[in-house]
Every structure is written in C-alpha cells, then in structure tokens.
C-alpha cells in the first residue's frame, strides 16, 4: 500500500541527508586545515560571538563555514540547541546538544600534539575543543539546498497524485519545521528531516479526524449512515464491509438499497446481504430512494436494529437529480452520517469528486477503497485536507473484513517504515 509514495518520500529524506553528509565532510576538511593549537585571542572570541568572560551557560560552538554563510546568528544557534524541535528525540538531543556536557569534554588523549589546553578559566571551551566538536559532525542544512530538495519533493508528491494545494501545504510544513533548527549533528539530521516531513504529512491527513465508533455510540438508535459516490468504486462492497464491521462490534444492521436507478443494484446488494445474513430493504427500480431508506429506518425501529446502512445511486455527482435525491434523504431522514466512498486508485479524480460531492451535499467523512492496489497514496494524503472531512476507513481488499479504520499516525508511520 502506497509503496511508490513511500519510495519517493524516502528519496527526499536520503537526498537531504546526503547533502548534509557532504557538507559535513567538507566541514571536516576545513576544520582539519584550520585546527591550530592557539590560545583564544580577543579577536577569535569575537568571531565566536562570545567574550572570553562568557560563562558555561553562554557557551556555543564556533560557526562552521556554512553557519557563517547562514543568516542564522550564533544566538539563533544557541536557541536551537536549547529548544529541541518537537518530534525529535529529546534523549538524542540531550546527548547531541550543543550544550557542553561532561561527555563532550575532551580527554587528555584527545588533545592534539602540542595542543592547547582548556584555556578559559571561566569554564568556556578552548578553540581546539570547539574544533573537535565541529569535526564531529556539526552541520547546517542550508535553506537554498533545502529549496532544491523541496522542489524535488513537490514533483514527487504531484506525481503521486497529491493535490496541488495539499502538496504546497506539505512543503510549507516541512520548510517551517526545518527552518530555525538548521544546525544539528549529522547523526540526528536524518531524524530531523524525516520528522519534519512526517509532521507535515500528519497535519494534512489528520484534518477533521473524529472517533467514528464514539460518534455511532452517541447517536440515537437506529443510527442512519448514507453512502454516496460514483458507480463502480466499491460503494456496495463497502456497505457490506461496514455491516461486518458493526457485526464484529456486536451491533446489528439493516441494508437499504437507495440506488433505485441502476438495473441490478438490488441484486448486487442482496447478494452481500445473503452472504452476511443481513436484512435488506429494496423497492423496485425507479422508485424514490428516500422511501427505501425511510422503510429501512422503520424496520430498524420495529426490530431493534442498531444501524441502517443506505446505498445511493452512483450517478455522476454533477447530476442535479442525484443531488436532489440526497437533499431529499437529508430533509426527510436526517441521517447521522453521510459517507463519501471513492477508490484510492482514482487519485486526483477521487480528490476532485470528494470536493464536489461535499460541496453539493455535505459529507461527514470518506472511505477510500482499493487502497491495497494503490501505490501512489495521493488521494489518501489529499482528501481530508481538500474537504475538511476525515478519511474514516480504507478498503484494503475484496473480503468483508478488508476494512481498516483510517489511523493518520499509523499511515504516516507506514510511509517511513524502514
Ligand atoms: N482490491 C479491492 N477491491 C475492492 C475493494 N472494494 C471493492 N472492491 C472491488 O471493486 C469492485 C466494485 O465494487 P462494488 O462494490 O461493486 O462497486 P460499487 O461502487 O458498488 O459499484 P456500483 O454497484 O456499480 O455502484 C468489486 O469487484 C469489489 O470486489 C477494495 O478495498 N480492494
């Protein structure tokens, strides 16, 4: 599931890491050339941004060439070191922080031949110590380098069918998450980039999330759920899967075939109802879908059934007639939820249809079917952000139990599985 997208995201993080890696190597070479056993003179202290009187609490690391080129000041660097970004392992940070620690302190063996000794009586580091820290992999992700990678990331997202505005939102998120925290040890840069991307993705796909089970529990019985979406995307199968889902949670269901437009729709839902041992309410082709759902609600009330699952005609969403039907169901039945169903594999088309269905007859959430057959993940990434309504479930196969609650955190994690 979403393997193509996963590869592209991993390409982004490794490209950024690689860039940083190269810079660190360059930094090492510069540092080695520069490493002279000298006492800290006032001039050098100035470059460092600190006076020799500076206490340990004000200590920082001498800027690398990159840091000097960077718009960030030494003070910014200190701040970044003191305030780890969210999502970055604080233990790692503590271990890798710029803040002096005992383990950072050089041992006698670490001193270069004829080298300087800690020369700062006030407790600061010598230049040699600072050079060692730099050589150990302190580095900078330059904004202009990042921009190049963000352009690549944008292409990767768009080619995975992520909607344009959603891709932009992700890029802005990544940039914001990395800006101001550009100075890290190399060993943690990979995590930093991954976390920045992970967080930006999470922000767009978790839009509007609510607890589906809780909402069902809180609604008056029978809970009425109406399913909308175009033909052939797996809507009928999803209704059957939902019946199984409720069965697994000890709740009874009745199915209502509100798709009175299409020949064969009754038989199709009937087959699922038989397979699952569920009651189905149908009317003849061409009759009023609201009447079918109404009858199903009456049946549920009379027979103590917990949930009514209503199919609707999957004609083109631009059809006024279809929208009129949905409005009529809304007016007369006032369903507890209207769920839009489309197939993940439809990518941008699914995203556009979700937006249009939501505009025409407000949805509460979406189910994306055939996620098992979708390498791109664009619809899964985009639908919630575009509609402001959450993806509630993913269809992950043709069996009745191939329905997974959509867990944004798990989805994002799976995109970064090693
Ligand atoms: N791989 C896979 N196939 C699915 C999934 N959901 C549905 N399908 C298949 O998609 C095909 C179409 O599903 P239907 O439920 O008939 O689609 P529909 O939206 O009801 O179509 P209409 O009845 O024409 O409106 C069927 O062969 C289903 O088995 C899924 O999550 N994964």
From TrEMBL:
Localization annotation: Cell membrane; Cytoplasm
Membrane topology designation: Peripheral membrane protein
Family matches, as InterPro entries: AAA+_ATPase, P-loop_NTPase, Signal_recog_particl_SRP54_hlx, SR_rcpt_FtsY, SRP/SRP_N, SRP54_GTPase_dom, SRP54_N_sf
Any one biological process term the GO annotation gives: SRP-dependent cotranslational protein targeting to membrane
Molecular function GO terms recorded: GTP binding; GTPase activity; signal recognition particle binding
UniProt-annotated stretches for the region Disordered: 1-127
Acidic residues composition bias: residue spans: 15-46, 89-121
Domain SRP54-type proteins GTP-binding, first and last residues per copy: 390-403
Keywords assigned by UniProt, alphabetized: Cell membrane, Cytoplasm, GTP-binding, Hydrolase, Membrane, Nucleotide-binding, Receptor
EC numbers: 3.6.5.4
UniProt KW Nucleus keyword: no
Top-level division of the source organism's lineage: Archaea
GO cellular component terms attached to this protein's record: cytoplasm; plasma membrane
Enzymatic reactions: GTP + H2O = GDP + phosphate + H(+)
UniProt key word GTP-binding: yes
Coiled coil: none
Main localization, broad class: membrane
Extent of Low complexity compositional bias: 62-85
PROSITE patterns for the chain: SRP54
Class of the enzyme per the UniProt entry, highest EC level: hydrolase
Ligand binding (GTP): 229-236, 311-315, 369-372
Database matches in NCBIfam families: ftsY (TIGR00064)
PANTHER family attached to this UniProt entry: SIGNAL RECOGNITION PARTICLE RECEPTOR SUBUNIT ALPHA (PTHR43134:SF1)
Function summary: Involved in targeting and insertion of nascent membrane proteins into the cytoplasmic membrane. Acts as a receptor for the complex formed by the signal recognition particle (SRP) and the ribosome-nascent chain (RNC).
Quaternary structure and interacting proteins, as annotated: Part of the signal recognition particle protein translocation system, which is composed of SRP and FtsY.
Protein name according to UniProt: Signal recognition particle receptor FtsY
Organism of this sequence: Haloarcula rubra
Protein's gene: ftsY
